[in-house]
Amino acid sequence: MRPPTRFRTAVAAALLGLLAAFAVPGGDAPAQAADDPATTVGDVTGFDHAGGVYRLSAGKAVARVTFVSTETFRLELAPDGTFTDPTGKDIVLPQGRAPRTKWREKSDRYEFSTSKVTLRAYKSPLRFALYRADGTRLWAETKGLSWTADTTTQSLARGADEQFYGAGMQNGRGNTSHRGKKVEVAVDYNWNDGGHPNSVPFYLSSAGYGVFRNTYAPNTYDFAEPVTATTKEQRFDAYYFAGRGSDAAKDVIGQYTKLTGRPFLPPVYGLEIGDADCYLHNANRGERHTLDALKVADGYVEHDMPNGWMLVNDGYGCGYENLAETSKGLAERKMKMGLWTEDGLDKIAEQVKAGQRVAKLDVAWVGDGYKKALDGCKDAYRGIEDNSDARGFTWAPESWSGAQRCGVQWSGDQSGSWEYIRWQIPTYAGSTMSGLAYTTGDVDGIFGGSPKTYVRDLQWKMFLPVTMTMDGWAASDKQPFRYGEPYTSINRKYLKLHESLLPYLYSYAHEATETGVGAVRPLALEYPDDPKAATDAAKYEFLTGKDFLVAPVYQDTTTRDGIYLPKGTWTDYWSGRTYQGPTTIDGYSAPLDTLPLFVRGGASVPMWPGGIRSYEDRKPDSPLAWDIYPQGKSSFELYEDDGVTRRHRDGAYATQRADVRAPRSGAGDVSVRIGASKGRFDGKQSARPYAFTLHTGDAPSRVELDGRGLPRLTSKAAYEKAARGWFYDRDDRGGVVRVKTAPLRTDRAFELTLDDTSAVGGAVPGAAATVAVPAGQELGAGAPGKVAVDVTAGTKDATDVEVTLDAPEGWTAGATAAGTIPAGTTRRVEVALTPAKDAKPGEQPLTARVRHRSAGQERTAVQRFALGVMPEAPGKDTWASDMVWLKSTNGYGPAERDRSNGESGAADGRTLTLAGKTYEKGIGVHADSVIEVYPGGRCTRFTADVGIDDEINGYGEVAFSVEADGKVLWTSPKVTGASATVPVDVDVRGARHVELKVKDTNGSKSGDHADWAAAEFRCA
Fold first, then answer.
1. What span, in angstroms and rounded, lies between the C-alpha atoms of 195 and 411?
2. What backbone torsions phi and psi does residue 491 show, to the nearest 5 degrees?
3. How far apart are CA 975 and CA 973, in angstroms?
4. What is the pLDDT of residues 880-894, one digit of tens each?
């Protein structure tokens, strides 16, 4: 935790940087001083071997090669001939019997070989190169290993198209290639964009190899030409991994995590969202006690929201009391208790016996990090397991290689904002490339934030396996039910979707224990041959497993541009519209309640249906659901165990495989075979009902279960009441077949068949119409109007077209018949709509629904969109601070009305002061900032005095601008804390929307407290 500070100035930043330079070993200092020239290893002067260990002398320097497996070996260099091993047994695990190797000498080199690879050691000078058994070169040194007094460097040739990934958690990057970039691997305590918490001294190459530097020292990897990898110590110690086949990158991650430890399997409650705060003598919340955590837990229950665990002492100086009673109370609310280890790990045994099941590390990782961080992770993990039957479950913001086997890595303490969302998206998928299977950040940070950024951040983090919300540091608590409607309902929707997806996520968690590959993946991992996957085209999206593509909204907007879909068929999760990749989607309609989310053709997703709040809500007779997007042959293996204990390590678990056969495209039969569940564990269901959702786009003629017909039900209501049967729902996501069974024994396989239906996308792909709603449409509260809807017929004529709007209670919506729309053409249709008189100004999510007939089927196309509900335009002169703000984004904390920018709370700023003059009215912001208001065309001028508030004492540098309906009307010169006040007088006649913007101009954002003093609209 870091306490907030008011003095965000250049001086403060400089002091922090200076402190960091002294506090962090190695830091980001240059690898080599100018007066410390490097020495490069010379010619080979001697050679010997013992079994599979080979030694090469080059004067005093000695290199040693040790094979670990047929595709993994260790290369060491001791410049003085003496080998050391500072990591000992800390990181690298015992690997069993070494492989058979052979060697031979040629005129210019030695060759050391297994059945899979050959390492060449050239003699003059000593240089290494790695080849596969088929002669393919994986890497080659451009010169010999070199060293200075405190560094060692390897230089490798870079391939023409070679891409690089890894280095652990690299904030703001990592899911796209590091090629051409310099990457630092060290403890830096920089938890913002550009920092590198949870660094890992490992990288992998698209050429099919990976490198792990076995060290606790900082590293610098420069992926230029040549690639130089430098470690801040005068010893060289690296393991190399040769990947196999088309999934070489996954294989390399697997070899690396076999060496350093597979990711742990969290308890199932660990995959539910967690909540953290200090509940004892909290300075930010007033006097309270540990048992008060139960009142917050009650909030999750009352709002029907999942929550798996609570840290009850998360804050500096926060202790605890009544621990066992608190744990018991949380258990009654289906939650586990966690503790922040501010007081170290000495008491963990008694804490665990009192009910602790989560350990968030602090004292165990501060200090010099590295070994201390890894030891803290292992000790806390063991502390839970040695004193209970639970699984170890820890969290840390500064870890090191090997920590993947004992904890979650989270990116530290940040402030919620749109920028926070943006840079976190590439961070966690990129971390997977280093074997970190569980990485995350606090929902909307621990400072700042807003209702909108909270919703947007929570949405996409529900597609990470783990996450947490942190309270007590912001101005008000940040549980997902604190902001009221519509935010509470949207947050509940995504929390419950995550809960429903736990069988899918848990199966991938188990897969990580076998392969080292986590569920959250960059596109480059699954689509290594796609040239765009390594580029910024895929930077702000990721995959969850193979099946979900997530493209978060990271700006204050209701549309998302630049969504890249790789090769294959992708289905919009919400509308059912299908896309053929590779393609890029611009203008995707994403109102606040809609996360851009796509599902891969061929996906079979196991789910828990029913909107449960906790895994404990599952009963012996609870159903298992399969959400299936049939295309070709596909399968998924469900993994299950008791979810809590460690008995799975002794074989107490079960697997059940789903195999789907369908046409590759178009019409045909679909079959789903659910195999027998293999294995046993306490609580395993001996029988259970199944529910299936099959995204076909066309109704089948018949549905059979093991050759016997299931009854066809004629309505959704009839389907929901029935114990078994099927129903084709044309109105659900382009048309889905819903099937439910009576309870079936889990030790027996069964097969479901759908006759005369289709693969995902329909029997005639592209036949269905699509719907789009032009962005930017507005209506006034209580004012009748019309909404434009664009309907595009597919490859077949759309007939009997009718367009309706699904509107909230209190609104009045009409319907418009559009007749026939010829194939491939678009028609704009206007639908009458009157918002409720008490509709809140701002964004209102609605659904446009187009019912039509095409290719012989009754079809429905839907599109979620945002309508702007406008406040009443001013009819007289109005202060900007008294108007409704349609948009309010701010660089730090909330923008302030009639005060200067403060901390993370509303109205905690000071009096507005510019050049010694105080102002009663105005707006206080922090760059970068946007305030949007609605003059509605009724105002003529906007006036203000602008500058950086006097409280900053001369620091800061910004520029102000006034924009109207997308056009820049006025821009200030650069303004510093020492500048004179700048008067503003702008003609805004006819402007409906006005944005007041402040941008940082020097890149530091230190002291950018900008004031729109006396900001006023002159209105008729």
1. 9
2. -60, -40
3. 6
4. 999 999 989 888 878
